[in-house]
Amino acid sequence: MGVQQSKDELLYQQVSYGNSEGIKKLRSEGAGLEWMDNEGKTPLILASMNPQLYDVAKTLIELGANVNAYRPGRHAGSPLHHAAKRGLEPMVKLLLAHGANALVMNDDCQTALDVARFKGFSNVVRLLENHLCLFSGWLQELYGPGFLELLAPQLLSRKV
């Protein structure tokens, strides 16, 4: 006689199959979205690792999955870390649009931006940098003796 799986585990399996309708049905029956496998992966982390599971990830987020769920251990990180590590730009956009925290660090003290830089995914790096950017433009820096600033500020300033 086999061991019966919980609804949470069945939902996780439906993610790996890419079955959004099965996920919705199990969720309506009370299945949880934060069940972790023996490696610490939640359904959303699993979906964020595979470009073919974009629609499944979107479904999970719409159903209330935690976009900042954290996977501890050797392959640590949030769904954003895992998507950035694989260069999945659409997945990164989806996660950021739904409130993923780009400043979360994994167990190696790396943000998703650090992971994307290390892997060389410039499109994901640009996307994350634009999301994190607080200011973009020129700054006017004044230098030199204070009394000259009053007389000729254009001669004592430079764009930075």
How would you describe the overall organization of this protein?
With 160 residues, the chain is mainly alpha-helical. It has one domain (7-135): Ankyrin repeat-containing domain (Serine Threonine Protein Phosphatase 5, Tetratricopeptide repeat, Alpha Horseshoe). It is built from nine helices and two strands. It has a two-stranded antiparallel sheet with strand order 1-2. Helix 1 packs antiparallel against helix 2 (20-28). The protein is elongated. The mean pLDDT is 86.
CATH topology: Serine Threonine Protein Phosphatase 5, Tetratricopeptide repeat
Order of helices and strands: HHHHHHHHEHE
The largest sheet, given as strand count, sense and whether it forms a barrel, is: 2 strands, antiparallel
CATH class term: Mainly Alpha
Contiguous low-pLDDT stretches (5 residues minimum) are none
- Biggest sheet strand line-up: 1-2
Radius of gyration: 22 Å
Task: Count helical runs.
Answer: 9
- Can you count the beta strands? 2
Query: What is the name of the CATH superfamily?
Result: Ankyrin repeat-containing domain
Give the N-terminus to C-terminus distance in angstroms: 72 Å
**pLDDT average, as an integer?**
86
Beta-strand residue fraction: under 5%
Helix content: 40-55%
Query: What would the principal axes of the Cα set say about the shape?
Result: elongated
Question: Structural class given helices, strands, pairing?
Answer: mainly alpha
Task: Write down the domain tally.
Answer: 1
CATH architecture: Alpha Horseshoe
